[in-house]
User: What shape does this take?
Amino acid sequence: MASTTNSPSTLLTLPNFSIQTSTFLPKTSQGSIFKKKKPFNFNSKRVVSCKASNGKQNDANHTSFLNRFDRRDIFLGLGGSLYGATSLVRDPFALAVVPIEPDLSSCGESTVDAGTTCMNVPCCPPKLKDSKIIDFEPPLGCKIHYRPAAHLVDRDYLYKFESAMERMKALPVDDPRNFMQQANIHCAYCNGAYSQVGFPDQKLEVHYSWLFFPFHRMYLYFFERILGKLIGDPDFTMPFWNWDSPCGMTMPQIYLDPYSPLYDENRNLEHQPDVLVNLNDGKSFVKPKKKDDFYELAKREQINSNLYVMYQQMVRSAKTASCFHGAAYLGGCVSETDIGCTPEPRGGTIENGAHIAVHKFVGAKNPPYNEDMGNFYSAGRDPLFYAHHGNVDRMWNIWKTLPGKKRHDFNENVWLNSSFLFYDENTNMVRVKVRDCLDSKTLGYDYQSVDIPWLRSKPTPRRSCSGVGRGQDVAARRKSKNRRGFPIVLDKVAVRIEIPRPKKSKKKDDEEVLVLQNIQLDRNDSVQFDVSINDDEDDDNPCKPEDAEFVGSFSNLPHGDNCHSETMLSTNLYLPLSEALKDLKINPFEDSIVVTLVPKEGEVSIGNIKIDYVC
Assistant: This one.
């Protein structure tokens, strides 16, 4: 149902401390983004240190708060309260608080930049005669239908699903319900086709912020409604790829028949079953040339690693809306130099983690763009994309059922009133607001009940020493460091750095968070690095997700959309530490923590690292 309407750093100065490097990874011949540009001043030696003070954030050198933090993170703080940073901003209402909305009239070609090559892609929706924008209204009194796990569907369901997809692909090319037109929705919202209403110079981006889950939920919802319309079954639901469970960690068989409309030739042929997805970085090390004891052991290790990754991203690191959904994303800018103009402030745990890992796992090795799933502009062209995002959407449902009084969505109107435009099954253009899609059951669907084994996959420490012993190790290392400054350039070798903890008192409900600020990289590069704390091992074996010292990862999927302008992306990474500190028995009065950064792919510069408390 719908009704017709009118459309309308400060860089902290830390006490003297140092960074130690470790050759955890062998040197490779990766290309360097810094060969193309030199945006950073850094010393090439791999021993680094900084001078700063967590206790002097408001001194005379503290210029503009907006110039130091991502504007969207200012409003949100880290705990999900839009005005949680009022102690740092005198008048938060003086800053524009504008919901995001795509300007349909501004839609132009999307640009896809691979660094050395660039192309324009027409991704805008077709303009239908006499079409009006209508506001979405959730169905009333509808029965709940359950999306099935892809590996569990029967033959009758598969026949219906394939029939629907075949009919969608057979629609006229200018029909907005045609499969390629539907795929182009993702391209348009992810590669700069739209400007924001009221801000013609600002491109709209639905990744790396709190818009990620709502946009993709409604994208799949209308895709599913169109499929149901084409086969005369309004109750039809699409399958989800159950990659968070051992039985679903390979590409689902129903998508692998070359003669099926569910098939896509642009996939990584090396990752066909029985190869398991790696939910940490998308790279598989289980390649079954023969199924011997070694293969079975490696397979079990990969399964266990994936379960630990899911526990990390859903339980340990996602205790608040800001950590799970990502940072706030507001319309417009404070000034031309405001970092808030950049549409990628910070993604949430699942978006930055398993979501990108699966994209990388499926996408073909097709330089320079790695279509289809390996690039945002083309990802929607693979039918498997919709099953993948079905499971991503399922994570949103699960997250709100986990223990913890802060596991609830934002309640700020600026988020709830942000909106997207989609064509529905009747070719009506519909405006959907975030507030319309907070509960999948109000949309008439939920997910088949399956086991969630990662809830039982709590990581354990690599070593059994107490927090006191670790503190002595830290103190011993502190005496022998040469001193260098930020930024840290992370490419082929691991970096170990001692970070002071806040001197202010921790409140009862505060979460201790590791903050990596001003992470700069080429948005066209595939990037991954892992982060661990107090990993004092002096060997070549970095922490893994099953270790309590492992606290998270940073990932980037190529999504260049600035062919004729700056390609560097500046973003932040926030990693909650409270549970890890408890698991490692680190004394709450310990004055510092050792952070280890392990590069897995690509090259980045990190402008600053600090630890803070958030509520």
User: Anything to note?
Assistant: The longest helix spans residues 293-316. Residues 114 and 524 are 5 Å apart (CA to CA).
